[in-house]
Records
---
Amino acid sequence: MTSKKLTYDVCIIGGGVAGCATAIALKNKAPFLSVAILERASNMLPNDASLPRIGETIPPQASQQLQQLGIWDSFLKCNFQQSYGTSASWGSSELYHNEYMYSTYGYGWHLDRLTFDRFMIKEAKKKGVSIQFKTSVLSSKKKSEFWYLKTNSNQKQTIIKSLFVIDATGKKAAFSCLQQVTKIKEDRMVGIYRFYNITNSNKTDLGTGTCVETDPYGWWYSATLPNEKLVIAYMTDADIANKMQIRRTHIFDKHLFKTNYTRYRTENSTNLIEPQIVAAHTQFLSSSVGNSWLAVGDAASSYDPISSLGIFKSLTMSQFAAYATVDFLKGDLSALPKYQYIITLDYKGYLKKRQEYYAQEQRYPNSSFWERRQRLQTITN
């Protein structure tokens, strides 16, 4: 049964970092706009709120984006763990360190993702953004100047009218796909990850921070987190992961034990969960804009985890998305094409850097994982 109707200037589908950052940027630029976030989850809680969430490190330059959004002081009050650099065994068996102390922006941060996501929701609410949890978009239809979104919330259906819609649904790009847009997937990468409890007794030479190291089938990622937690992930292609059966605990542990550096981080630790899998492929929409709508964050384009740009990109692109939306609502027909140009240009720059980085690893000439990335480089060049 359909109940009340609601009307907004802008509806953002998805209440993650990209959705909240875009909402904040919109209210900064045009406080008079009525903005709503429609989020499927219940108060941003994962299925098991006791477990950590993956995707937890942001680089030093993110400070600039947080300042531009006007949420820098509130962010600092969260007291997230500072990150002073990264380490990598990539292209060589030696471990190289990239110290953030040489960065113009200082240090980065290891985030408690649940706390950070709630922080972003809180900051959006401060700006007057209406946030509707447990709300799913069932269908959408454009009539005249309005979008009519049929939503379901607590088994009640509501028609929401909006002049403009922003897709912030992540890799699913749910709204964009309803508009017949194609998701272009560059690879089949997945991440198989586990979380651990650690103590001061198992501190290694790596200290706190992020470390990556390669092997013939992919590469390992590890990062210390707040509250004495550690995440370790193995990045490879889906078919290789299936062939290795690396989601099995004993096989995951067997390959982890073969690493030169990562394995030492788990000494005297206890694991919190069995290996889990998450999509980590590079993806790009055939179009990130349409008739009174645009996509932002991972919905528009998602990057290889080696870039460490997921959250940073969401914070950055949210501001371009806000400018494009406001200008479009003012009647500027060039606003959305300009936004598409920015998204495309950034994506092309990312692809070039990704190719250059993967090309540094030449130690596994017979590896399917690495050969595919070398072949991709040849094609795109």
Note: The chain has two domains: 2-56+111-186+283-353, 189-279.
---
Amino acid sequence: MSAEEPMFRVVRGVPTAEELAALVGAIVVRTRPVAAAAPPAVSRWARGTRPAGAMSTAGPGAWRASGLPR
């Protein structure tokens, strides 16, 4: 494939610039490696407000454990 050769072509219709941009964006997202889609890191500030581990499970004493420090 040469540098002059297009990567894809429209075979039917006349897409607008916005439609072509959406198509290119979809192709770029689909061709990224799976490892690049890692979840964003959560700051310690935000993490402190979320229940985690045993505190987020229901059961005897769960209401008491929800108020205890981690």
Note: The chain has a mean pLDDT of 76.
---
Amino acid sequence: MTLAVVFLAAAVVFAALWFVERARRRRAQDAREEREWDRIDRELEVAEQAGRFRIIVELGDVAVASVSRVVSQAEGMRYAAGTDPETATRSAAALETSARDALADLRRLQNAAADGVRDSAPAPSLHSAGDLFRVMREAGLEVTSTETGKRYELRQGAELVVFRILQTSLGNALDHGGPGTRATVGFAWTADGLHVTVEDDGIRAAARRAGLDRDGVDKATAYSADDDLRAVTEFVEGPDLNELRDRVALYGGVMDARSVPGVGFSLSVVFPALRHHNGVHGVPLR
């Protein structure tokens, strides 16, 4: 009787182990299938993005050719206006048609580039900076701003670049410094350009939350001389900052992003000719 009970118990144990192992293998198989489907989805997505990129490049070439044709016709009409007004009048109709074609090409390019990326909300501008500051303050970032010089209107693309500078730098200050971080935004307007600065005390804010100060930091968390030297001599890099640097370069700007030892982060962007910069060839348009 006892032997039968032992065999029965062993059979139950083996059966339980078999079911557990079967369930484990089924979960592993399901996980492998899920990973395979994820891989296929990623490959399809990459292929789709590559196809969209080719379309964007082709439409961009067409749009550039269309705009170049408009510029050439406009130049010809300007020269003709001084010598043959009738010819200039006839050329105006052709110029209007070419301009409409160029606009259509640009809209196709815009739709292809924005598909799945941009929503229907209007692009932010400098007028949106106040809302950005309010949102950051509500999240715990202490934002103050200063402005010198006389502000002037900028092209929409230039305003978007300046807004992205504020958005990226203030967002990074909050992410790295945490609530209680102080950030100062500065605008210095000149006759032709703009200097934007954003400085924060994220490192010092983290020390304050930990109950530490710069002079009384425990050795385990102290800043070494190597850390200070590295912070002073190295540029700060990252996907957000690299993208921001590319945006700034489109409008002839120069960006400098550095850590300030024991304090936080400093971002400085100088646009020497932002007022008249066309954001394409770096040629001032007056």
Note: The first strand starts at residue 142 and ends at 148.
